[in-house]
Automatic annotation (TrEMBL):
<feature type="region of interest" description="Disordered">
    <location>
        <begin position="321"/>
        <end position="348"/>
    </location>
</feature>
<keyword id="KW-1133">Transmembrane helix</keyword>
<keyword id="KW-0812">Transmembrane</keyword>
<keyword id="KW-0472">Membrane</keyword>
<feature type="transmembrane region" description="Helical">
    <location>
        <begin position="7"/>
        <end position="26"/>
    </location>
</feature>
<protein>
    <recommendedName>
        <fullName>GDP-fucose protein O-fucosyltransferase-domain-containing protein</fullName>
    </recommendedName>
</protein>
<feature type="compositionally biased region" description="Basic and acidic residues">
    <location>
        <begin position="332"/>
        <end position="341"/>
    </location>
</feature>
């Protein structure tokens, strides 16, 4: 029994030591007063290096450099840019310069492949310089390289802002630390957890909470008073991982979306001119429950284009003409006749479709999928989150009904070297694919999503699938609708829903 008893004692000691280490790590993350002060460059006794460091900082910052670096921002472009705006405006409140993050794959983050201006216009940061200062990623990297060259790399600490203690996203490594361009000083990571709520009144104190977090202000456990640590202000780069859902900055200017780049907006203008007149439809089919709704929704969409869309387009033409002429009673009396005449002359508008259903396919593959109860390996959805296995027979039947009754246009990212398979596909006669050259979009789905969004904002009318019935609620749709409030023409924003019960009975027969 003795050897067994001995093993039990050893295991108990291992557990106690492990738990002690865990408790110490947790405590060290929450009480900065227990941190060991790192070797800061302000104590540097090499005067030559002190002068060189000062000159480098003045070159890029006009004085000592203090940055907020958005390393990782949760969620995709529409929401991710809203989160970045929070960090940008917060940087001004804590007297730091925000680094404009890289972009790619509909994401924002320092270690992604493309420059900020691949998606956005930097004019936004320039116009908001009263609220915060910014630096481009290229200039920030040059600052890092010059500091590294004198053996004084920028000091940094990881700062994490989370929704809650459990289930936060897997975060990428800090690419600048991996390249030894940042000196993390052995400091522990700092984390701030704020309960998420859609109620803005319950988020009122969050701005102060995040501000204190970035300033190194914490509540002393013994006195209960707010204390500022001696380390955070000396850290040159706060490397931020951001995982939240709602805004917290009070400044109304932070609510304004960042304008998109000149390249993507000019491409949208050119395509819109080519398609006009056209209506845009955002139809997100992924996870519509039940999927059988999609077929009825397709019939409702086609019916909308056959009846209401021409009428609304005709009304727009008449109101536009009447606004240019004298507004007298005789003209008003002829409005009904004019409307009827224009409606008869008005053609069914072109449909520009924003959808997660595959954009490039062979018509025979759809027929094959329907014959095999939705199963096919040849069709790939346009959304990365939409598994090919989730495409059902209802998805195929719904889209097939649409392209058999409407003229449909979709965009598509051209590959750098087009494959023989893609060039040999034979799409339906009413399904027109608008290719976006590789040298413009770099085969980036986020860039294409922005282009589609801009085309929807420029359309004569905009429809979306009724949430929870024909589609899903999304920030993508909301951004389009909000931007269309300033539409120069008659602004049509609507949802398409399942047909009325009597119409649905006709479909089922």
């Amino acid at each position: 029994m003795f050897p067994f008893r001995r093993i039990q004692v050893i295991l108990l000691l291992v557990i106690v030591i492990g738990m002690t280490g865990f408790l110490y790590r947790w405590h060290s993350l929450h009480d900065p007063s227990n941190w060991l002060s790192p070797t800061m460059y302000d104590k540097d006794d090499n005067q030559d290096l002190v002068l060189k460091r000062k000159l480098i900082d003045e070159k890029y910052c006009g004085g000592p450099c203090r940055f907020i670096l958005p390393l990782f921002i949760m969620e995709q472009e529409s929401k991710a840019q809203m989160h970045f705006r929070q960090l940008a405006f917060m940087s001004g409140l804590v007297n730091r310069t925000v680094v404009l993050p890289n972009v790619g794959g509909s994401r924002l983050g320092a270690c992604l492949d493309n420059d900020f201006e691949f998606y956005y216009s930097r004019s936004w940061a320039v116009k908001n310089q009263d609220h915060f200062q910014h630096i481009t990623m290229n200039d920030f990297r040059q600052w890092l390289l010059e500091r590294q060259a004198i053996d004084r790399p920028g000091t940094s600490q990881s700062m994490h802002i989370h929704v809650n203690l459990r289930g936060h996203a897997v975060e990428p490594n800090n690419c600048f630390a991996s390249q030894h361009l940042l000196n993390m000083n052995g400091l522990p990571e700092r984390r701030l957890y704020l309960n998420e709520t859609a109620n803005p009144l319950k988020r009122l104190y969050y701005e102060d909470a995040v501000k204190d977090f970035f300033l190194g202000v914490y509540r002393d456990a013994e006195s209960g008073e707010s204390v500022q640590d001696e380390i955070t202000d000396k850290i040159e780069v706060l490397s931020v991982y951001y995982d939240r859902r709602f805004p917290f900055v009070h400044n109304p200017a932070a609510e304004t979306p960042i304008p998109y780049s000149e390249q993507v907006t000019s491409q949208a203008d050119a395509i819109a001119k080519e398609l006009s007149p056209y209506w845009a439809v955002h139809w997100r089919t992924e996870r519509v429950e039940p999927a059988s709704n999609l077929v009825g929704c397709a019939h409702a969409l086609v019916d909308y284009f056959d009846t209401r869309a021409p009428l609304l387009s005709a009304l727009h033409n008449i109101t536009s003409t009447s606004m240019e002429e004298d507004d007298d009673d005789d003209d008003k009396s002829n409005l009904d006749k004019e409307l009827q005449h224009h409606q008869q002359q008005q053609k069914q508008p072109t449909l520009f479709l924003l959808t997660d259903y595959p954009h490039v396919f062979d018509e025979k593959d759809v027929d094959e999928a329907i014959a095999n109860n939705g199963t096919t390996k040849k069709m790939k959805p346009a959304s990365a989150s939409f598994s090919p296995n989730s495409l059902t027979i209802s998805h195929h039947q719904a889209i097939q009904y649409v392209y058999k009754h409407l003229q449909v246009h979709v965009t598509h990212l051209a590959e750098q070297s087009p494959s023989a398979t893609s060039s040999a596909s034979s799409p339906p006669a009413n399904w027109t694919v608008v290719p976006i050259p590789y040298d413009i979009a770099k085969h980036d789905p986020g860039w294409l999503g922005i282009l589609d969004k801009l085309l929807a904002m420029r359309a004569d009318g905009f429809l979306a699938g009724q949430p929870s019935v024909c589609g899903r609620k999304s920030s993508f749709t909301n951004q389009i609708m909000n931007q269309r409030l300033d539409h120069p023409r008659t602004n049509v924003i609507d949802y398409f829903d399942l047909p009325k019960p009597s119409q649905q009975d006709d479909l089922d027969e």
